[in-house]
Amino acid sequence: MGSGLTYQLLTRDQYVRGRPTVITFRIENTGARESWILTWYTPLEGIRGKIFEVVCNGQTLPYEGRMVKRGDPAADDYLHLAPGGSATADVDLAEVYTLPPCDECAVSFRGTIRDVVYESQLLPRPMDRHEPAEIPGNSVSFRIVE
Question: Which residues of the chain have pLDDT under 50?
């Protein structure tokens, strides 16, 4: 059985180099079950690792932000999504990538939720018992001008 989770990225058509390049991440529970998702390594906690693939004019850009190592999560590291529920977060790619002027900059989320729980009494779950879920979603592209 799938997770019932999907994501969507939203962006503008064009950004100016050196200014914020904000994209919106939206995750939705399209399934019939209550879900608690670990927000680590998703845009719901900001950008704290290489969670995006960023390709500008055919060249993959290196992630330049900080990398975070973690122990076991706490219950408040999980976000509850009721059936039909959603959550949204805005992140600025320019804070962790050097974005050059380009005709096409394509961005995709790596699409993995590190742990999805379907019964609240199981929260928090230790790392060695996490059940990751690959979730489908879109990619976006935009221009970056001087």
Answer: none
Instruction: Tell me the per-residue pLDDT of 80-107, one tens digit each, with 9 for 90 and over.
Output: 999 999 999 999 999 999 999 999 999 9
Query: What's the CA gap between 50 and 107, in Å, rounded?
Result: 12
Alpha carbon distance 98, 28 (integer Å): 30
- DSSP 3-state of 129: helix
Q: Which CATH number fits domain 5-145: 3.30.930.10, 3.90.79.10, 2.60.40.2970, 3.40.50.2000?
A: 2.60.40.2970
pTM above 0.85, yes or no: yes
Interatomic CA distance for residues 49 and 40, integer angstroms: 9
| Phi (first) and psi of residue 129, to 5 degrees | -115, 10
For residues 120 and 86, is the Cβ–Cβ distance under 8 A? no
Contacts of 129 (CB under 8 A, 6+ apart): none
